[in-house]
Amino acid sequence: MSVRFKFLILIVVTAIFAYSCGKSDSSTKNFQRMKKGRSTLNMGAIPVKVERVKREPVSLYLLSNANIEALRKVDVVSRISGLVQDITVEEGDYARKNKILAKLDDRELLLDVQQASAKAENSARLFQRSKEMYSKNLISKENFDDVKYQYETAKSQLEAARLKLTYAKIRAPISGVITQRLIEIGNYVGVNQKVFVMVDFDTLYARVFIPEKDIQKVHVGQKALITVDAYPGKKFWGHVKMINPIVDPESGTVKVTIMLLKKGTPIRPGMFATVKIITDTHPNALVIPKRALLLESEIDRVFVVQDSVARQRDVKLGFADGNRIEVLSGLNEGDWVVVVGQEGLQNGARVRMVNEKGTAVATVSSQTETKPRTSNAPRSQRNLERPPVDAKRLERFKKFLLRVPEIKKEYQARVQEDPSFEKDLTKQMEFFRTMSRKYADKLGMRPRR
What is d(CA 436, CA 352) in angstroms, rounded to the nearest whole number? Predict the structure, then answer.
């Protein structure tokens, strides 16, 4: 590859870096100046996103997944057969215990009660007369006992008829929500036929399975953090209710039941949940985002920005909690750590810090900028005004860089995996900026910072 071709690539790389730093008019002027010599490549400050090291509680936990289940789920059945005359609830309705859910035709049952009542009254009169005669020794004990038996039987038959009449009104066996209605008005239902399904939503639970090597870390009453896919970002709390005393010999796990208080939360039975059983907590730990760690480093290391210069720091890590991680040594509270832009960043590089919202935290002016830009925006935002992507410039970069086989191959792969890539100029500019940096590294021509 010729020296002239390498030099042209280096010019393109520098121009794209200047573009990504948020310069518009000044970037174009700098690009023209950079054509005149390589010395100007060392002048720019690299934009990086930063976050402060702060103190927060951080916990260690055991992670597992489970489906949320209701503590009580009941199939409501009909105790008698008959035609459905009325339905008083629908799916989703809340019903208290003993509320009437449906009514069956009870006319025949009322007749049975009347017949049983008349028979019981007649048996009562016969029993009373036999009792008086027996007291006067006018009838034998055998005759008296027979009349007494008939009287007791008639009373039982009356009670049974009355009880059967109550079964014509199908009532809620528990307090809960109607999740299924399986009958319609006019349907004929048989004895023990399922007509409703009710679920008690007030108390929910999740069954998780903990490896036997970790079971000594779990105890009854321990707090558990629950998250569900349906409500991202929301946290729900529960506690360990039961620990099975037996280890499953096939999986080597122990079943642990986590109870949740459903009241006031949108969690529903059947939802897939992530359960974190908290085993230890450091309430005042130094915490940084995990993305601040340098992935290419064999040891735990971050970049700290001091006086607009990026410095590498070796750190010792502690608990990891989601996207956060505890730092035991190597950093101080209030330090600025680089969270975006540290890949390929060199120790001692000059940087311009911005926060997650794109607002300037601290800036260092490039020596190539001879005139300050004027803007009506607040001073803290002036260095961050980014011009729209210049389609013509992008097309020149694209045509030039796709001459490199490696870049062309990665470009084609990106098009296949992201159909919107070819229409999104911002994505393309970011892609060519990354590829240019990668290609410059490969040639050993990265500008010194």
Answer: 21
In a domain, 258, yes or no: yes
Q: Which of 1, 61, 20, 122 is nearest to 389 (CA)?
A: 20
216 and 169 housed in the same domain: no
Please say if the pLDDT value at position 155 is more than 50.
yes
For 163-211, the pLDDT digits (tens) are 999 999 999 999 999 999 999 999 999 999 999 999 988 889 999 999 9
- What CATH number does the domain containing 65 carry? 2.40.30.170
**Would you say residue 380 has pLDDT above 70?**
no
Name the nearest CA neighbour of 196 among 219, 176, 178: 178
Angle in degrees, CA 142, 146, 152, rounded to 5? 140
Write down the H helix ranges in 335-424.
379-382, 391-401, 405-417
How many Cβ atoms are within 10 Å of 65's Cβ, its own excluded?
11
pTM of the model: 0.51
Same domain, 65 and 86: no
Residues 66 and 155 in one domain: no
Domain identity same for 163 and 92? yes
* Domain contains 263: yes
Q: What average pLDDT does the structure give for the chain?
A: 80
Q: CA separation (Å) from 45 to 19, 131, 176, 209, 373?
A: 12, 115, 64, 52, 16
The total number of structural domains in the chain stands at 3
Residues 119-143, mean pLDDT to the nearest whole number: 90
Domain assignment of residue 240, given as a range: 60-70+197-282
CA distance 82 to 109: 10
